[in-house]
Design goal:
26 strands, single chain, about 525 residues, 3 domains, Immunoglobulin-like, alpha+beta
């Protein structure tokens, strides 16, 4: 499995690739001649000596490595190649075949997920995407909003007039005449509502950034990202990553570019905006590129338009794939239902809704909240199938203080919660997120002086969804924080395991606290 003599030396291992040389150059991994992953050894790898790196396989790819495949590694800039020959993974039976559930080829994308890319898309798929882009631009233009190609789509159009092969989405930005972030977000929300009135499906990502899904017309649904761009002082801001000192004339008046043979709206100075976005080397393809805005930019845009989204993609993908398929309610839900009389209950971290459904069946009026939209949708579908009208689901981001305050006010007013229930959440949050959980609970229970029920792992679990992100939290810390938030501790106990669903040595803690 060693390479031919070359300046690029690669050895294939079960854990990943040993790469010698070219540590700062983008490298492509090809399976049976098809590009499936790109990386830079010094970025994604772990140093194992002078100019030598171990680059682990991405998690999503590692899970699919079973069989035999001809492996080649190619240096994108120098053209150097390492021919690793036929490589055996796992059982070694059959060929490694990286396709999705529809049999379409996939590769590792910039988010380390296995997704389709434009490199293997057929002409009909590209035409469907570009038709969606044009329809989206038309809607925004008719609203009097100057909208244009942005990010990867603009980059491909200016470089070659084509979609970038390793890319897999479409990006549009619009220029807002507002300068205050609040007004920018309000305008973004207004535009989203306009698309909804037209019958389009949308997904809000953050303040100033949402997705639209043009009505399909018999074709597969495509997603278009819509970003807000605006000036504040000398800086151009583009949600979610850009704060650069470029003039308004870089954007307006709009021009056009050609993409896959179509004339599409573009900013006034496409090369100027691309250099501000990607740096002076923007003309050189780099499939490993990821936005790494300066800390000041992340902090500013984060404070204005979003909270954190730590591990959100993991939870979304896990619930979407059916990874959380535990049948029936947890033991903790049964334990709470025996002690809490039916009433309004808020389930924080509801996941796919298994405990929320149980409470609703027992006569509770339940609002389930979770980080991941895919989990909420699975819960809604189960509630529809069971005819549970007393159950509702809402998205909640415990890393966004504004979201927490808004949801807390809603729960205190419309929901009138008498109990807050949270299972396996305390140990999955940062300190900031945990305090926001308690802040939400206090807001929801203040008028009813109801109870907060918590259960979480106090030792690292195994074989449990999200165990890799577990965080040790001493019960004393939680108790002290509860008291500081105005709660009185009514019950606390150590239990052998969390709801009987993990190995017996995975200790857990249950706490019941009443709002004073």
């Amino acid at each position: 499995m060693d390479t031919e003599p070359s300046t690029l030396v690669v050895k294939v291992r079960k854990r990943g690739l040993i790469v010698v040389g070219h540590e700062d150059e983008p490298l492509d991994v090809l399976f049976d001649g098809r590009r499936i992953w790109s990386f830079v050894p010094s970025r994604q790898g772990r140093r194992r000596g002078e100019g030598r790196y171990l680059v682990p396989w991405p998690k999503a790819l590692r899970a699919r490595l079973d069989g035999v495949v001809t492996t080649t590694v190619e240096a994108l800039e120098s053209g150097a190649r390492a021919h690793c020959g036929e490589v055996k993974f796992g059982s070694g039976r059959g060929r490694v075949n990286l396709v999705d559930e529809l049999g379409q080829p996939v590769r590792v994308d910039k988010g380390s997920r296995l997704e389709r890319s434009f490199e293997t898309a057929d002409e009909d798929e590209k035409a469907s995407l570009l038709e969606g882009v044009q329809r989206t631009l038309d809607v925004l233009t008719q609203r009097g909003v100057p909208a244009f190609l942005a990010f990867g789509c603009l980059l491909g159009a200016v470089r070659s007039g084509k979609l970038i092969g390793h890319d897999n989405d479409a990006d549009i930005a619009y220029y807002s005449e507002a300068s205050h972030p609040f007004d920018v977000m309000l305008e973004s929300l207004t535009l989203e509502r306009h698309f909804i009135r037209l019958g389009w499906r949308t997904l809000r990502m953050q303040g100033g950034y949402f997705k639209v899904y043009p009505p399909a017309s018999g074709r597969e649904e495509v997603a278009i990202d819509i970003f807000s761009a605006w000036h504040r002082g000398p800086y151009l801001y583009v949600v979610q990553v850009l704060r650069v000192p470029v003039p308004r004339s870089t954007i307006l008046p709009l021009s056009t570019v050609t993409l896959e043979g179509r004339t599409v709206l573009a900013p006034a100075d496409p090369p100027g905006l691309l250099e501000a976005t990607y740096g002076p080397g923007w003309r050189v393809p780099d499939p490993t590129f990821k936005f790494r805005p300066p800390h000041a930019t992340r902090r500013t845009l984060g404070a204005w338009t979003r909270g954190g989204r730590l591990h959100q993609r993991f939870w979304h993908d896990s619930y979407a794939s059916g990874a959380d398929a535990s049948p029936g309610p947890s033991a903790f839900a049964r334990w709470v239902a025996e002690r809490e009389p039916p009433g309004a209950l808020l389930d924080v971290g509801s996941g796919t809704g298994r405990d929320s459904l149980y409470f609703a069946e027992r006569g509770f009026r339940v609002t389930g909240c979770d980080y991941a939209a895919s989990g909420l949708e699975r819960g809604r579908e189960q509630a529809r199938q069971q005819g549970l009208s007393s159950l509702d689901f809402l998205q909640l981001n415990l890393y966004d203080l504004r979201h927490v305050l808004a949801r807390g006010a809603l729960m205190a007013g419309d929901c009138g919660a008498r109990a807050v229930y949270s299972r396996a959440v305390v140990d999955a949050l940062t300190d900031h997120g945990r305090r926001n959980l308690l802040l939400l609970s206090r807001a929801a229970l203040r008028d009813s002086t109801g109870r907060l029920y918590l259960e979480y792992f106090t030792e690292r679990p195994r074989g449990v969804l999200g165990a890799a992100y577990w965080k040790r939290v001493q019960p004393e810390v939680v108790v002290d924080e509860l008291v500081s938030f105005g709660f009185t501790i009514e019950h606390r106990e150590e239990v052998p395991t969390l709801s009987g669903e993990a190995p017996a040595r995975s200790a857990a803690c249950r706490i019941v606290a009443r709002m004073s």
